[in-house]
């Protein structure tokens, strides 16, 4: 094991899974200068329909945010998953879980500590991150010590009701499920993190804009309340005037720093 700082050269387009009948899934690894560092696994948003692992958020373009996280002492693995035009729920949850399994299997050669993983998702990616962190299978949750949830949908039924879209077969949630939310409420609940809250869950850092017109902040309020009611460590920040994707007059640097600080806190040995 190395004991000296190393160059932080990103490893790009590393295939971690090849689902039968689908494209290969890849990740980009931004190593920390510190050997044996914890790992942030980033899950992109895009309504489960679009999006790229190359961007932390559309208002924070390029790889610089990943470099900042890595410079703080946290390796970053930004991962693919099958989009809803390719496969429906729960394929995306399986893909993120598969990325974690790959990282655990290759932790030694990558020189990272896969017993200290933070899942960080934005929008639809935050939903996936939460579902993996709250998964029924302890093997899937192994090593997850925290979750950063940026404005993620947490209750698909309440979200569809707020939009008057329970019977809409064409919205983003329906595209992910493969049917209108109201057509199979049990399945919609299974895809909603709020229904999977469990005592002993990893800590959550949740942040949401008060002017988010795509995912109402009530989604994060209800999720945080459910986590706290279960005795979990959950901290919710409502950002005044912020829209979806941190649009508007928002101190994005402060939001990024707060999330990094959370990652460092929960990954302390």
Give short descriptive properties of this protein:
8-stranded mixed sheet; 8 strands; 269 residues
Summarize the structure in words.
With 269 residues, the chain is of the alpha/beta class. It has a single domain (11-155, 192-266), classed as Rossmann fold (3-Layer(aba) Sandwich), CATH 3.40.50.1820. Helices cover 33% and strands 20% of the residues. An eight-stranded mixed β-sheet has the order 1-2-4-3-5-6-7-8, with helices on both faces. Helix 2 crosses helix 4. It is globular and about 50 Å long. It starts with 10 loop residues before the first strand and ends with a helix. Residues 1-7 have low confidence and may be disordered.
């Amino acid at each position: 094991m190395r004991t000296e700082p190393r160059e932080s050269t990103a490893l790009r387009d590393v295939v971690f899974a090849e689902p039968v009948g689908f494209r290969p899934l890849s990740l980009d690894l931004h190593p920390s200068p510190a050997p044996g560092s914890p790992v942030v696994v980033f899950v992109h948003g895009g309504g489960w329909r679009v999006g790229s692992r190359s961007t932390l958020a559309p208002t924070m373009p390029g790889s610089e945010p990943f470099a900042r996280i890595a410079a703080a002492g946290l390796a970053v693995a930004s991962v693919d998953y099958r989009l809803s035009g390719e496969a429906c729920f729960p394929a995306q949850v399986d893909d993120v879980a598969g990325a974690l399994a790959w990282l655990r299997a290759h932790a030694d050669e990558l020189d990272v500590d896969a017993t200290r993983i933070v899942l960080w998702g934005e929008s639809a990616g935050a939903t996936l991150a939460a579902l993996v962190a709250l998964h029924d299978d302890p093997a899937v949750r192994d090593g997850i010590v925290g979750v950063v949830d940026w404005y993620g949908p947490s209750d698909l039924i309440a979200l569809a009701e707020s939009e008057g879209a329970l019977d809409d077969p064409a919205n983003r949630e329906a595209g992910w499920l493969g049917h209108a939310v109201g057509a199979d409420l049990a399945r919609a609940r299974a895809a909603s993190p709020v229904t999977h809250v469990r005592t002993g869950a990893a800590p959550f850092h949740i942040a949401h804009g008060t002017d988010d017109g795509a995912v109402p902040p009530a989604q994060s309020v209800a999720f945080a309340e459910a986590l706290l009611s279960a005795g979990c460590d959950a901290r919710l920040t409502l950002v005044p005037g912020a829209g979806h994707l941190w649009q508007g007059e928002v101190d994005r640097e402060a939001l990024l720093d707060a999330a990094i600080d959370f990652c460092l806190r929960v990954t302390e040995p």
